[in-house]
Specification:
There is one protein chain. The protein is an alpha/beta fold and about 230 residues long. The chain contains 6 helices and 9 strands, in the order E-E-H-E-H-E-H-E-E-E-H-E-H-E-H. Strands 1-2-9-8-3-4-6-5-7 form a 9-stranded mixed β-sheet, with helices on one face. Helix 4 packs across helix 5 and helix 5 packs parallel to helix 6. The termini are far apart.
């Protein structure tokens, strides 16, 4: 059984996205930062590397049933040799570059996160939009919002991704909502939002953040009617 809350132009579900997605109507874009299949410790979700490939195929199939694109999925470089097995033919990469690279005992320090995308990009062509974003602030630098989540995405980065891929979209879906960053970005850019999160702790954080965003009001003019531009 899923919980559901409506806050302004956002509808938020607490439940398993594989159960919620078949109950939804059509959306314009899927923007999400799912678990990576690298053994990360979550409260509810078991990030098991052995079952992750089938899990990702189920997610891609479930979202494809309700969206024609674009689809934008943050991923871990560790699985790059398997992406062709999970994602549709013709997918491409957007580089989410880090403003601060945490040292790890590895020969190479990864300074950007790969973002896999495919489908119809709902943004008019522009010479100014690039296939990368560089964080302006360190993860816990000055003016950075403190969020009780192990791996929140920088809001300015998610806003840039939304602007790059979905400028003319209306309804954005994030089936792994986490602390609600995609929802905050969507509302800030004048979009409607549907989010799904399985962990109640993070769902409550998302509710509070999105409620605060709605109370503050949108900062930008709502976009024009969507126009699909096929990915070449």
């Amino acid at each position: 059984m899923s919980l559901v809350e409506t806050i302004g132009d956002a509808v938020l579900y607490c439940g398993d996205c594989l159960e919620v997605l078949p109950t939804l109507g059509k959306v314009d874009a899927v923007i999400t930062d799912p678990p990576y299949g690298i053994g990360f410790k979550y409260n509810e979700y078991v990030d098991d590397e052995a079952v992750y490939p089938e899990f990702m195929r189920l997610i891609v199939s479930a979202t494809a049933n309700i969206c024609d694109g674009p689809f934008v999925f943050w991923q871990a470089m560790k699985n790059c040799d398997k992406w062709h097995e999970w994602f549709p033919q013709g997918f491409r990469l957007f580089a989410a570059c880090k403003g601060f690279v945490q040292y790890r005992p590895t020969p190479v320090q990864y300074s950007w996160d790969p973002v896999v995308f495919w489908g119809n990009v709902l943004t008019e062509p522009s010479v100014y939009r690039k296939d990368f974003n560089v964080q302006n602030l360190a993860p816990f630098g000055a003016n950075r919002e403190r969020i009780e989540h192990p791996c929140p995405r920088p809001l300015e980065q998610v806003c840039d991704v939304l602007d790059t891929f979905t400028r003319n979209a209306d309804l954005i879906l994030d089936p792994f909502m986490g602390s609600g960053t995609t929802g905050v970005a969507a509302l800030r850019l004048g979009r409607r939002f549907i989010g799904v999160e399985i962990e109640e702790k993070y769902y409550e954080i998302a509710l509070k953040r999105i409620d605060r965003e709605v109370r503050q009001g949108n900062l930008f003019t709502p976009p024009v009617k969507p126009k699909q531009i096929p990915l070449l």
